[in-house]
Amino acid sequence: MSRSSITLRSASEQDALFLAELWAEHLRRGDREEQVADLERVIKEAAASPEQRLLVAEHDGRPAGAVLLRVATLSPTNLEPVVQCWTPTVVAHLRRHGVGRTLVEAAVAWAEDLGIPHVVTAASAGSRDANRFMARLALRPQAVLRVASTPVMRAKVEAQRPACDRSRSARGQMLAARRSLRRQQGAG
User: Fold this and answer.
1) Global pTM value
2) Tens digit of pLDDT for each residue in 163-186?
3) Helix (H) or strand (E) segment spanning residue 120
């Protein structure tokens, strides 16, 4: 059985719809048109920056996956340079054909070319296959990224305050809201 050819190329604006479909679960909520516009912006920024690459993998000439590579620091407080390998994703029916490995290999090659000692990536916590794939490539957990909506976090933070502080905080929020409303009415 012969292996099909996998090639990499820089993304173009014409790839925005493909990327919106491929990365749907990783994009901000909104309609498809907004997501495509966001990705067109990401594509333009990557094309204009020497510190970014947005690559599309093709399998037998058809888009099969993509990855966004960025030079950054390990964290805002650890300034060691890294190549970030964002959202390496493969079209579902082409998984286990070497496309994912090719995308990650591009990150490693770029890091080597730049003399950067580490490659970092993130995988969805619920994606067992993605996490196993990353582990097989020697990528180990370094941190856990947690996300919550601002209103939910506000409610949880307030719920954890002592009762006497909660009533003062609620009163302060009410006064701030009244001041804001007065400012808006005065400006209108």
Assistant:
1) 0.78
2) 776 556 666 677 667 777 787 787
3) strand 118-121
